Amino acid sequence: MQAVTRCLFDDLFYEARRLGASDVHLAPGRPPAIRVDGTLRTTKSAALSERALAELFNEAAPCTEPTLPFHTDSTFVLTAPLWGRTRLHWTQSRAGITCAVRLLPNECPAAKTLGISQRLCDLVQTSHGLLLIVGSTGSGKSTTLAALLAVAAAARYRKIVTLEQPIEFDLSQLPGSIEQRAIGTDVPTLNDGVFSALRSDPDVIAIGEVRSADDCNALLRAAETGHLVLATMHAADAASSIDRMLRSFPGDEAGVARTVLADVLIGVSAQKLVAQTTGGRALESELLLATDAVRAIVRDGKCYQLRNAMTLGGSSGMKRFAGTQRYE
């Protein structure tokens, strides 16, 4: 990367972090844009050239990534002194190559600092079961997952295997035996990664994101073997994540999937980041716990009853998002 281009991105990412931005958007012919407290705004920088973006790609891309021009999305993590730890997602558009940069915390944050409830922290100190962390894009699911893995590691000496695409947080400093595996690099697919992890004598398996029906199948397979499994998923709330997972299975497999999920589920935590009047954003979450009533609902496939079960389950520790504590 030429010195001028290096200075351009050094200044951009340093200023974005200083302003508390979560994301930086780069596109040729336009000034960079940053997202602060959930709001996207343009910067006063000059419009980016396609050459500058190409230099950034070639500087940051590992040897396993495609070279320019490419025809598929490409995502990888880069750490640089003034940039910190960043996740770069590259796409091809009519304007040329574009990049969405997520500014990751340089260290794994503490659960208490993030506002994660003690009840949720207690769940990851169990020895087996499935815990889902769900929310929309940019709601901090990966950060919460990393913080909960730190809680699990601190509780007692464990072997933790993570399957991520890409690896966002460096967990090597956590106590215990930690193996972080990148899907597409260290293991071909999530299915392969789960199969390999199960043969590695793990105590905890963490899955960076469940996207497809095959991923859901692999997730349940990992959980029903008696391990503690944590995973993130895109969903609006806790109840819809269960419904989405079960709908991914074809009709002849749905019954078995409902039975397995009802048996292994320990909880679902949904979250979103809410703007504060004093500035910044705070974590807001809801928690679905696998009580006997919830397990029966899942087993019968009556997911429409889950929200009511959460509303009525406050005494057991369940909680819904603010403004949704009503009987439906």
Draw up the topology in text:
Blueprint: H1 3-18, E1 21-26, E2 33-36, E3 39-42, H2 50-60, E4 74-80, E5 84-93, E6 96-104, H3 111-114, H4 118-123, E7 129-135, H5 141-155, E8 159-164, E9 177-182, H6 190-198, E10 204-210, H7 213-223, E11 228-234, H8 238-247, H9 251-264, E12 265-275, E13 281-289, H10 292-300, H11 306-312
Parallel strand pairs: 7-11, 7-12, 8-9, 8-10, 10-11
Antiparallel strand pairs: 1-2, 1-6, 2-3, 4-5, 5-6, 12-13
Helix pairs in contact: 6-7, 9-10
Overview of this protein structure:
With 328 residues, the chain is an alpha/beta fold. Helix content is 34%, strand content 28%. The protein contains eleven helices and 13 strands. It has helices at 3-18, 50-60, 111-114, 118-123, 141-155, 190-198, 213-223, 238-247, 251-264, 292-300, 306-312; strands at 21-26, 33-36, 39-42, 74-80, 84-93, 96-104, 129-135, 159-164, 177-182, 204-210, 228-234, 265-275, 281-289. A seven-stranded mixed β-sheet has the order 9-8-10-11-7-12-13, with helices on both faces. Strands 3-2-1-6-5-4 form a six-stranded antiparallel β-sheet, covered by helices on one side. The longest helix is centred in the first third of the chain and has 16 residues, at 3-18. The termini are far apart. The model has no long low-confidence stretch (mean pLDDT 90).
